[in-house]
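Review box. Two proteins, two foldings.
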Amino acid sequence: MQYPAFFDAVPGIRLYDPLAAFLGASADGIVEFSYLDAVKLAGHSCPTVASAYWMTRLALRALYEEEMPVRGEVAVEFSGALESGVTGVVANVASLITGAAADGGFKGLAGRFERRHLLSFAAAVPLEIRYTRRDGGGQVDASANLQRVPASAEMSALIQRCLDGSANAEESRRFGELWQDRVRRILLDHGDDPEVFVLRRNA
């Protein structure tokens, strides 16, 4: 798969997955996700997918600090309904990384490793997403203000031409280049920008 070079510059996310260790899927139980994994799951790279990946990474880092995050031990709540806006897309990425699932998730083994009921929607949380450690280790609320990383001024005309089929090959190439450049700027230039990624740690 050929993809933009900056994907490889986006830091990965390492977690300990006790279920993977128990079933022998990972000898040491450690699993790692990259931005490319999120792109493959979603089928595309866009600001929404990028923000979902990055909010989850930031939240896990805030929740666990120097410890390795534990997959399957974080509940994820969304303020939006599943069908509203891009909530479902963001939830899919958060679920991939944290292991949190809704009713259709893994039912567990002898009362252990259950992943169901850890992903919920239309929750009374102050920001876009709340991540909660199930062991009582705290909560983190997160949201992304993507409008603070605006698209190129060229994009408006280009996207219309691409959508209506009137764009030529060079315009189509340029559109994709500019689209991914905004994703790059969100992740690499503004990944630690508190005006773009808002994080609030709760006890």
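Next protein.
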Amino acid sequence: MKRIFRVLGACALVAACTTGAQAQNWPNRPIRMVVPYTPGGYTDLMARLVSQKMSEALGQPFVIENKPGANAVIGADAVAKAAPDGYTFGTVIAAHAVNATLNPKLPYDTLKDFTYVSLTSVAPLILIAHPSVPANNMKELIALAKAKPGTLNFASSGIGSAAHLTMEMLKSREGINLQHIPYKGTSGALQDTVGGQINVMFDVIGPLMSQVTPGNAKALAVTAKDRVPAAGATPTMAEAGVPDFISGTWSVIIAPPGTPKEIVDRIALEAKKALTDPELKKKLDDQGIVAMGTTPDETRAFVTEEIARWRKVIVDAGVKVE
């Protein structure tokens, strides 16, 4: 028995030394950053901006790999099952926390199967409508939806996304019915909204305002407590007649479980440094995004709280996987 314990102890020592050496030599090749959505949306933007700054600091390129589908499950699962060697990370948003409740067939455990690295940003949403929609403010939109139940539709970046659940909150609160058309990311949803196939949609401010400014869409309200400079004169939901209605999304860097702590801490540190860069912060401000930067422990606590918060929204609104 003593011999067995000596062998086990020796194995543990070898493993610890291997991990330490691995962390000391890291990084010596490109690092993969998985984005579970199509290019052009909030998640992709955050991954690219922060990765670029971290690449400069670490001396190795970050390769962005877009793996959309299943409301971010495909991309997140790729991270969960990757080798924990410090060469695979991912960027997820609020849908990642939502899936813990909404999807009973997840191929991973949302808390156990990931290393949480850093909360990089938070962002309110904006509601836009195609110019053909005969409603120019929230009161008119709600009245229209009540007068013609089920005839209006709305797009989202995916089932269970913050954009989807924010509209479900509005539907439940105001007693209205709109048909949900889910996409695999913001870009496709926005394209069809501008094209007139979709009536309204919620999403982060930057991409949507890029279509509001030239008149391809009209902005109705933002889901923030106060007005957001990036959204111009767009009123808050409270100002538009829907009080106590605040929602939004966020971006978090994740890694496979078992990724060496030294590497995780370094990525969190470099992400925080990147997010204090004046140039990067201005780019985020212009998009209506608030830069953050947290420790791994703070990030895990945040995601745990978000799972509970979105679970309540899902239950209260009676949202089911379609």
